[in-house]
Amino acid sequence: MYTIFFLIGIGLFVGVAAWFLFIWAVKSGQFDDPEAPKYRMLDDDDVAAKTAKPLERQEK
Amino acid sequence: MSASETTAAESVRCDHCMQETGRDTAVTAVIDGRKRYFCCHGCLGVYELVNSSSLEAFYRQRCDWQPGPPATGVKLRSAHFTDTVTIAGDEHRIELLLSGIRCASCVWLIEKFLAKIEGVLSARVNYATHKAVITWSGRKTKLDTILNAIRDIGYLPHPAHINARSTVFAEEKQDLLLRFGTAGFFSMQLMLFTSALYAGFFQGMESRYRVAFQLISWALATPVLIYAGFPFLSSAWRSLRRLTLNMDVLVALGALSAYLYSIAMIPLGGEVFFDSAAMIITFILLGRFLEAGSRLKAGNAMAELAELQPHEALLLSENGQTTMVPIAAVNPGDRIEVIPGDRIPLDGVVIEGEAEVNESMLTGESRPVLKAPGSDIFAGSFSMNGRLTIKVTGNSSTTLLSRIIKTVEDAQARKAPIQNIADKTAGLFVPVTILLAFTTFLYWKLSSGSTVTALLNAVSVLVIACPCALGLATPLAILVGTTAAGKKGILVKGGDIFETLSRTTTVVLDKTGTITRGKPSITDLHDFARTPAFLQHAASLEASSEHPTALALAGAWDSDLLKVDHFRAIPGRGVSGMITGESWLAGSEPFMKQEAVAITPEERFIAAKLEAEGKTVVMVACNGMLAGVIGLIDDLRDDALPLIEGLRKKGLSIQILTGDNRGVADYIAARCGITDVQAALGPLEKAAVIRELKAKGECVMMVGDGINDAPALTEADTGVTVGQASGIALESAGVAILKDDLRLINTLLDSSSKCFSVIRQNLFWAFAYNLIALPLAVTGVLHPIISALLMATSSLVVVSNSLRLKRI
């Protein structure tokens, strides 16, 4: 009987979690540059790993 | 005859910057077993460096590169940057604004190149904002190394000084993104429960579920209205308090009435419309967000331009000592020194020294310009090879660069008259709509007796009437249109100018310096062979004169000049002097007569023939005998004929106005096939001709070089200057084409008419939608949800229609 409310609760929880994720993404600048990433993924190179690491550290 | 006349067949593409350059003047080098061409040593240096760092994939990858020179030759001082560095332990971090980024591959190149430097921890370049964030270990490397590495590969770092304008834009954009995202998330969740409620409405639903779903809907709609809709609510409140109604009042009214009505319906067991309230806000926020994005981009471009102007200058004191001072401390009349490779900090006049100066950031012309004592010099350009002493003529806010920036900023703020119409309509629209909604409510209340139906229809009217498509129609199209034009080097000062341009019926062209080169060149040379090398003598004589004809003659002789004694210049007539003991004269025919030079009928016939062709005739005499006759003409520019042809195809009538004499004017007119020519006009007479045309009902576009045409440019409906960066040109003309290419005038006319047809389509759609939907809402045919959906569609139509202008 109360299954539906339980499910709604889960649904809302997931939704709100996604919203928080979105807020985090905006605040940490994930949406600042919508242009470059689409080209960046085409670069096949060896240095990528080197530049990526410090950035991850920075975000923590 | 001169270097500028190299034809396309003799030119090659620079392997680094992809600009065309003469095959003979190009710098060549053999790299990887292939001969490569470069337009300058700067490009060669960058190419070698990129190649030796095994990053040459850059040249294969770049596909959207706009040809243009690298930013080089400027000395970087890390002292200018230290205030923007943040230090955490050993980790240093700096934010830089980079100029010279032309494509996405540039981002790749900079990141890879910096990553190879020992001690650099990370380098991230933002392609949208041209900002770089670099972190490095303070023990292993220095800021100087990093800055100069960036410069060496052809980009120029500027300290990312907190620029108030673009920071505000960036914050506004982030704020809108958060609000729009929030509104979007909650609206989506809301739709789930709303569709369940709709299903329940048709199929029946247990009341406790319905109440529960309605309560959840309420909970989900509240953040959308209160947080995401806050900008509308506060703006509407402000506008109500000032009694000036704007469009936000309608938005707020529509959303609030749907929201409050729904709350009231929960205990009464009626239907709720929280989703309409949330949807209105979500869709209008989307429009605002898109607009903020393009404003941010424009703001960043301006910030980059502003950073070209140095913040410090080398002040020269009376006793010849130099001190580094901030530019605010330099007064007009002070002397400053510029060392090779430095940017010029302030506008002024050169008083000492000679240097080739790169003014590409101001004019788009990549070839350096020679500056000698007496030349005007502009802030932001940089000296490539010489030391200059400059007398400052203004302060940092009157420089050409800052005026260009201000012009553009003003243009972005100026509204087209057509948009004022939209705003005025909104002022009228709001009370009418409220009245209409109220009447609708009363009518349904009285006729059906049901408050629910009455309120529903009234809300429907409010939602439908919200003219957000109307509000978006004009500014968005103009914004997209002017930005696209700006990318091609066309500065349009405002939306109103774009509008007038699209109505142009007559184009008036100035001759000298606009459709002609502005510099006469020698076409005929009649040497009567009485003296050897008469051209050498004539050139030596004319070299001391400043007259354009004299300059052309002097320029035609490129080897040694002879020494001239007793030089005398008679303004408007000619020059005379002694060369190796002989008396030489050069000048017009009356001058020869005055000096009693014998002219034979045959010689007179040659001169008369040249004059009939519209040429300027210079006679050269030696010891009272005529030595030769030289014919010069200021010929048509190569791009003048394509321009005129393009204008004719558009069905515009074309006129030429000139201060020159009849013969020259007729010659040029015949060359381009124009019959309507008026010669020997002064600056004010040109303006009078335009006033006359306007009185006849013509919409006049004037193309001029900006200095003697200034009155005419202001008088015309739209003034256009081409390739001129003089301050007067910028002030008097509505459109400044920075690139020296006349064909851009056709592009300008095309884009303005395209822009206005898009605006007309937008307005038609917005009005048509309101006209059709309003009666339906009043009669109660439309459910509020359908009206909200319709409204959103109409906004999206307007937005996507405007975005078509990106490709012009």
Brief summary:
Chain A is mainly alpha-helical and 60 residues long. Chain A has 3 helices and no strands. Mean pLDDT of chain A is 73; it is low at 47-60.
Distance between the termini of chain A: 44 Å
Cα-atom radius of gyration of chain B = 34 Å
Major beta sheet summary of chain B: 7 strands, mixed
Q: Give the assembly state of these chains.
A: heterodimer
Distance between the termini of chain B: 37 Å
Low-confidence stretches of chain B: 1-9
Can you characterise this structure?
The complex is a heterodimer of chains A (60) and B (808). Chain A has 3 helices and no strands. Chain A is elongated. With 60 residues, chain A is an all-alpha fold. Helix content of chain A is 70%, strand content 0%. Chain B has 808 residues and is α+β, with helices and mostly antiparallel strands. In chain B, 50% of the residues lie in helices and 19% in strands. The two termini of chain B are 37 Å apart. In chain B, 44% of the residues are buried. The model of chain B is unreliable at 1-9 (pLDDT under 50). Chain A binds chain B through residues 4-5, 8, 11-12, 15, 18-19, 22-23, 26, 31-36, 39-40, 42-43, 45, 47, 50-51, 53-55, 58, and chain B through 61, 104-105, 107-108, 111-112, 115-116, 121-129, 135, 174, 177-178, 181-182, 185-186, 188-189, 192, 209, 212, 216.
